[in-house]
Amino acid sequence: MTVYDRKTVLSMKLRSQIALRKVTRGEFFTRLQIVRSLEPIIQKTFKEVEEDRWRNQADNEPHGHPWHVSFHASQFPGDDPQACPRQALYRMMDFPESEPTSRRLRTLAAIGKAMEVELVRTWHEAGILLSASPDAEIQTGFELPSAWFTGSVDAIIKPRTWNKPVPVEIKTKDRDTIDRMTCGAQGPDINHVFQLKVQLAFVRMFQPDMWPGLDPVTHGYIYYMSRGDKKGERDVVTAEFRVDLDEKFFEIGVDRLKQWRAWFEEGYLPELNPGKRDSKFGHPNGWRWSKLPCAWCPFKKTCQLDFQASETDLTQSVGVNRAKLIRPEYDPAAARERVFKRWAGDRQMR
């Protein structure tokens, strides 16, 4: 039996210090993070894979149809004065976004999706989930053919003591944002509010057929979960916001989508409030290129070039040639035909 007296402890400390000095130069620089061997390989791999996904549209059919053939709830215009029809029409032409998804964004999206799936699975196992289980290939979704409009939900639950469906939009945020939300310094993202309002309107519309016998839906919740924690915490920090049914908001947005649909059918690229084309302040909608919604728009450069060239024919947009540089096989006529084929029944009824 070893006796841990003063001499033994000092000897152990000395051996430990000597061991720390017995490292190669490479190990030493690696410990200081001066030399990185694995990180360059990982960065290169991510870049190659994301480039391939971007060029080959690997993420293009998340709900069973090509993404570009519909207007989606995540871009619903509602009564927002800065909802942009040009962005929606460029997307429907299947123009590629300006660059591949970043490693950071891909990772955050994967983390958020995993947290959402785990929560929805818990509701499913608890028997309070009305919408599709997280293992289903396609989420519970809705569509409005007259507006070429589709939407899906993260989850619809019926708590045991309630008798109505409750849509829940699940999102993740960094810890600092959640802290601001919980103290009232920050509210929900406006586009998340819009998404939930769309879901509420769709649930109200289809509820009699899908969940008969329940009281009409009146509200839902945006539920934010923190992606980080602080020392000593043993649970996820969250924030939630109630959003009420807003049928007027939905009606206004649907009317706008119908107008956007008509422009797509005509091949017209709208200019709502054009400014001077020879000025850096000129804009087809009278906005500022450096401000939202243009600042981070994936089609910003295409829109600028079209406007400078006075191009209002969607099929002649500079986006066609830009798309061919990324995907040589791109065919604008085929892209339009995919949209028309998706909604062929509705086109015949009109």
Give a brief description.
By secondary structure, the protein is an alpha/beta fold.
Model description:
There is one protein chain. With 350 residues, the protein is of the alpha/beta class. Among the domains are: 15-56; 103-252, Lambda Exonuclease, Chain A, CATH 3.90.320. It contains twelve helices and seven strands. The strands form two sheets. It has a four-stranded mixed beta sheet with strand order 4-5-6-7. The protein has a three-stranded mixed beta sheet with strand order 1-3-2, covered by helices on one side. Helix 4 (85-92) packs across helix 8 (247-266). The longest helix is centred in the N-terminal third of the chain and has 24 residues, at 103-126. The radius of gyration is 26 Å and the shape is globular. The model has no long low-confidence stretch (mean pLDDT 89).
How is the secondary structure organized here?
Layout lengths: L5 H16 L3 H7 L6 H19 L14 E2 L12 H8 L10 H24 L14 E4 L4 E4 L2 E3 L8 E8 L1 H8 L7 H21 L8 E8 L11 E7 L2 H20 L33 H9 L9 H9 L5 H11 L1 H6 L1
Parallel strand pairs: 1-3, 5-6
Antiparallel strand pairs: 2-3, 4-5, 6-7
Give the termini distance in whole angstroms. 92 Å
Mean pLDDT: 89
Radius of gyration: 26 Å
Order of helices and strands: HHHEHHEEEEHHEEHHHHH
